[in-house]
Amino acid sequence: MDRSSKVKNKNAAAVQITAEQLLREAQERSSETPHVAPKQKIADEEELLEYRQKKRKGFEDAIRKNRNHVGTWLKYAQWEESQGELERSRSVFERSLDIEHRNHTLWIKYAELEMKHKNVNMARNIFDRAVAILPRVDVFWYKYAYMEEVIDNVAGARQVFERWMSWEPSEDAWNAYIKLEKRYNENAKARGVFQRFVSCHPQPKNWLKWAKFEEGIGRTDFAREIYEKCIETLGEEFVDQNVYISFAKFETRLKEIDRARAIYKYALGKLPKSKAENLHNVYSQFEKQYGGREGIEDVIVAKRRVKYEEEIAVNSKDYDVWFDYTRLEESTGEIDRIRDCYERAIAEVPLTKEKRFWRRYIYLWLFYAAWEEKVTKDFDRTKAIYTKSLNLIPHKTFTFAKLWLNYAKFLIRRDDFTGFRKALGTSIGMCPKDKLFRGYIDLELKLQEVDRARILFEKYLSWNSSNSAAWVRFAQIEKSVGDFERCRGIFEIAIGQEALEMPEILWKAYIDVEIEEEEYGRAKELYERLLKRSEHVWIAFARFEYGNPDNGEDPSDRLSAVRKIFSRGYDVLRRKGEKTDRAFLVETWREFEKSFGDAAGLKNVESKIPRMVKKRRRVLDDDGVESGIWEEYNDYLFPDDETERPNLKLFEMAHAWKEKLKMGLFDSDDESADEDEDDSDNENIMGDGDGEASNSKRKRDADDDGSDAESS
């Protein structure tokens, strides 16, 4: 049975207790004054002795329990001091030091006891003992020197510092000694301390403190000597940017602008980027304030130079960085710097013998040689650069025609024609290349050496007889010198080659030459010969015939000749089944008739215009097997094509039936009745079969030519 009490009255209480009230009461109760034991009043001397004996017994018992507890010893000594028993307090300290003589607090409290009661000699004795036992504890020396200075014993304080300095303490100890001398205006003695200080701690910041001290007392000449001696003593390895910045600012304050600028430039040339992070910014501000345009440009050049050095340190084979670096140095005009930069750049030879890694690298050599030739006029060095670069390239693997040709042009400018021909002859014999042959031939032609150019063309074409452009160029050179028979002979040899690259260029050039020479019969013969090899020149042949003067001056005669060509081309393409080419030919023929023909001719051509329809066929995979994928393609239906006439008629009938169906000319019964009858033919004509028709329909859809007439 549930006996838990139930709240009968659930209404809110009249007085509500908030959380804030509870917290406030708890805080008030915690801040009450704790219990303090009542003070004991001693009435006579006997009670005092009894109290002291009891207290000492308690301290002695605590020490016997743990003699190494320093806090107990300190409390014991302080209690004895409070009782006026200095001898007993000293005894307690001495006893504690016998046990813990390395404890700093015991020595300090012992000395403070004596100083509090103005026992200076005894305090001095304690400090002497402390620094003798623990000379590396700085607090003893500080307290000792401070005590001597407080009692106006400056000589004694100086003596303490001298004893301390013999131990070569930290920088703070030296700074404290210097401050002592400065407080009493002993500048000479402070200078001596500084001199010993920088010998003990030769960090740059300590030299700067010394220089600022000398500047502060008006000894600017001596301060300048300190800066110079600092740089000389520490050397480039240990001098940081702060020394140079401070030195330059010192000269700036003295209005020695040229000196300050020289210091900045010297520092920028000596310090690497890692040690000159702030130096560039300070120098920039200096030049903006005191310099001109040249000074600001020098700062920018210095910054960019450091940036390029950092990028090269990360990747020395980044030739784009070397390009920018050499251009930067060239803008300065300093020959030695530019040459050194180029030498460093070309020393970074690519590690692999692949041409794509050498392309950017070779341009460094080309720029270097061009700079030596144009700027320094050192032609011997330029020739040495070209020779060295050519010896460096593995020509059996790959070569660079641009380098050979630039070297040859340089030799021509130096009137060394024998050397130029020898160099290019070596290049052709070692690593023949189209660009080398073309460049060599161009140079010989510029020198008007046609016979040498002929010999080079013969070698060129014997090496690569399939180059149509080379044959054309050879023939055009013969034409330019007036030897047309030789020109025709070259063209005849060229078109007789079995393998040619872009033969259409060669045939066109041959025909154009004959037309220019007004040999229209030869040109027509060339077109006829070309038609035996290619079926794509009917339009060009027709245009030629329209402009052929041999066809007479009467436009009707020319028009008749052109129509014959178009008609021949149409018949040939029809026999071969080239529907796309035939459609393009008919379209061109129609445009010709519109421009130059008559209505009868235009009507005749328009009767041949095909209709483009979309069909479907299966896609063949790589093995030539039909896949399950269908694709749409454009086909042309020609009106006069006998094989396509049934299909065209069926297509027209189906199209007309579909239009009537849309217009509602058939009722629902006729529509359902005719649907089964005509749907198959309609799908066959449109090429939209879905694979669910009869076997004859699937056969027609699989046919690549889409010849629905045969299936019908």
TrEMBL record:
Residues 666-712 are annotated as: Disordered. One of its GO terms (cellular component) is precatalytic spliceosome. Residues 223-308 form the Pre-mRNA-splicing factor Syf1/CRNKL1-like C-terminal HAT-repeats domain. It comes from the Eukaryota. This is Crooked neck-like protein 1. It is found in: Nucleus. Keywords: mRNA processing, mRNA splicing, Nucleus, Repeat, Spliceosome. Gene3D superfamilies: Tetratricopeptide repeat domain. InterPro entries: HAT, HAT_Syf1-like_N, HAT_Syf1_CNRKL1_C, Syf1-like, TPR-like_helical_dom_sf. Residues 58-203 form the Pre-mRNA-splicing factor Syf1-like N-terminal HAT-repeats domain. The keyword Secreted does not apply. The keyword Transmembrane helix does not apply. One of its GO terms (biological process) is spliceosomal complex assembly. Belongs to the crooked-neck family. Involved in pre-mRNA splicing and cell cycle progression. Required for the spliceosome assembly and initiation of the DNA replication. Its main location: nucleus. Residues 667-682, 703-712 have a biased composition (Acidic residues).
